[in-house]
Write a structure and sequence with these properties.
With about 70 residues, the chain is an alpha+beta fold. The chain has a domain at about 5-55. The chain is built from three helices and three strands, in the order βααββα. The protein has helices at about 10-15, 20-30, 45-55, and strands at about 5-10, 35-40, 40-45. The protein has a three-stranded antiparallel β-sheet with strand order 1-3-2.
Length: about 70
């Protein structure tokens, strides 16, 4: 198992999340990830990413979900 640092740069965070650095930069530009800049470089905290992933994977209530195309009739 890899040992992850608490504060990661974009390359490290991309590997941790299992996405490309380009994808991570798109998320950062859109403000979708918890991150901060140190100088002109992005930094991401592992604990903040873990919380973000938990929130992304939490099921939403049925009333707030959009119906699937097959159910939209």
């Amino acid at each position: 198992m890899a040992q992850w640092r608490e504060v990661m740069d974009v390359g490290q965070a991309a590997r941790y999340l299992g996405v490309s650095s380009d994808t991570l930069y798109k998320y950062l530009a859109a403000g979708k990830l918890p991150a901060f800049k140190l100088g002109n470089r992005w930094r991401l905290k592992k604990t903040a990413l873990d919380r973000w992933m938990e929130m992304q994977s939490t099921p939403r209530s049925q009333s707030s979900r959009k119906p699937h195309a097959a159910q939209a009739r």
